[in-house]
Specification:
Low-confidence stretches: none
Order of helices and strands: HHEEHEHHHEEH
Number of domains: 2
Strand order of the largest sheet: 3-5-4
Mean pLDDT: 90
Oligomer: single chain
Shape: elongated
Strand content: 5-15%
Helix content: 40-55%
Structural class: mainly alpha
């Protein structure tokens, strides 16, 4: 019976340490040293939260840079990909439909503008995918062709390097890019 009570006391002590004290300490450390990241890396514009730099969101207007397609409509609860294989007719049809939005063939459009990400929440596109959309944006915003260089420079400014210099590829956050686009368009007009 003595070992049962010792076990119960040890369970209670470890439950308090690992279930209460440790999480509170880690939450405090995260809030002090990494407050922005601990709170979801939220992006604010004029004091209002417009999104997170970690979760993609839908931009359907031709006036904006489009993100990667999402199999879950950017809903983080059922985060998932399509799981369609390379010989799937449904995948082929969806790629062709997405390419037609750009008025081009599947081969001409950067793949990350056609293929949904594994999570359906990817907030980034490749720099090539961003550059590919510049002509569409110039046309839809009635900007003059001289602004093309400004848009390319803006894209270059927002390119993020691979994590730790070696994980992943260079990428551009679509939400940040669209916020900058609205700011730049205000300057250009």
């Amino acid at each position: 019976m003595k070992t049962v009570w010792q076990s119960m006391r040890m369970l209670a002590i470890l439950s308090v340490i690992t279930g209460l004290i440790y999480p509170l300490v880690m939450t405090g450390v995260a809030q002090i040293f990494f407050s922005d990241k601990a709170n979801g890396s939220l992006i604010r514009l004029n004091g209002r939260i417009v999104g997170s730099e970690l979760v993609g969101q839908s931009f359907t207007s031709d006036r904006y840079f489009w993100p990667r397609p999402s199999a879950v409509s950017y809903n983080p609860v059922p985060s998932a990909g399509t799981n369609l294989g390379p010989i799937s007719g449904e995948l082929r049809d969806s790629l062709e439909a997405r390419a037609s939005r750009f008025g081009a063939s599947v081969a001409a459009v950067p793949s990350d503008l056609l293929e949904a990400s594994g999570s359906g929440l990817d907030p980034h596109i490749s720099p090539e995918a961003a550059r590919y959309q510049v002509d569409k944006i110039i046309k839809m915003r009635n900007l003059d062709l001289k602004t093309k260089t400004s848009l390319f420079n803006m894209i270059d400014k927002y390119i993020e390097s691979p994590t730790l210099g070696l994980l992943g590829e260079p990428r551009v956050n679509v939400l940040k890019l669209n916020i900058a686009l609205d700011s730049l368009a205000g300057v250009l007009k």
